[in-house]
């Protein structure tokens, strides 16, 4: 009989140590919910940044293609390019893989057939267009975060051809 009170004490101790209280469970659930919400926000931001990067990459490839055409133009023919405009069809924009993935997504994040527009400006930074010209190629499109613009410049001299 002496061991009976000792047994009761051990059983009470086990009952006290078992499980979590309701408050602990609620706090743990709240912490988990905040963590999941934070990860969702990070994933959405990452997806937007990735899509914005793809837009800029497609614009850069389009500008590089236009600059390659300008570089092959004779120096004496550069002045005739001043004021010209061009349109980049988003479905046919150049891509690094050779495919048709150079699309310009619009504000809703969806890819549309909205073209990007470009302009060519030729100027003489030194004042003498017969010796040095600067060609600025500007591309504008409607991006996810509003209107986007990218400019690339090329300087050519009579000496360089």
How would you summarize this macromolecular structure in one to three sentences?
The termini are far apart.
Total of helices: 2
Q: Beta-strand level of the residues, as a percent range?
A: 15-25%
User: What pattern of helices and strands is seen along the backbone?
Assistant: HHEEEE
Number of domain modules: 1
Shape: rod-shaped
Mean pLDDT score: 78
Please summarize the sheet with the most strands. Answer: 4 strands, antiparallel
Work out the radius of gyration.
32 Å
Could you describe the 3D structure shown?
The chain is of the alpha+beta class and 161 residues long. It has one domain. The protein is 40% helix and 22% strand. The chain has 2 helices and 4 strands; from the N terminus they run ααββββ. The chain has helices at residues 3-17, 22-71; strands at 85-88, 116-123, 132-143, 146-157. It has a 4-stranded antiparallel beta sheet with strand order 1-2-3-4, covered by helices on one side. The chain is rod-shaped, with a radius of gyration of 32 Å. It starts with a helix and ends with a strand. Residues 93-112 have low confidence and may be disordered.
Layout: helices, strands, pairs:
Layout: H1 3-17, H2 22-71, E1 85-88, E2 116-123, E3 132-143, E4 146-157
Notable characteristics:
161 residues; alpha+beta; four-stranded antiparallel β-sheet; 4 strands; 22% strand
């Amino acid at each position: 009989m002496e061991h009976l009170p000792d047994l009761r004490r051990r059983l009470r101790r086990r009952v006290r140590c078992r499980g979590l209280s309701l408050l602990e469970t609620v706090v743990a659930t709240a912490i988990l919910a905040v963590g999941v919400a934070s990860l969702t926000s990070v994933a959405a931001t990452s997806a937007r940044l990735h899509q914005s990067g793809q837009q800029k990459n497609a614009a850069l490839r389009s500008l590089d293609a236009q600059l390659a055409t300008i570089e092959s133009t004779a120096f004496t023919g550069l002045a005739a390019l001043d004021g010209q405009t061009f349109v980049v069809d988003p479905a046919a924009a150049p891509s690094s893989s050779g495919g048709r993935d150079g699309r310009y997504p619009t504000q809703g994040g969806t890819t549309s057939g909205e073209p990007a527009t470009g302009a060519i400006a030729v100027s003489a930074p030194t004042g003498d267009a017969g010796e040095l010209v600067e060609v600025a190629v500007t591309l504008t499109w409607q991006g996810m975060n509003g209107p986007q613009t990218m400019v690339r410049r090329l300087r050519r001299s009579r000496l360089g051809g």
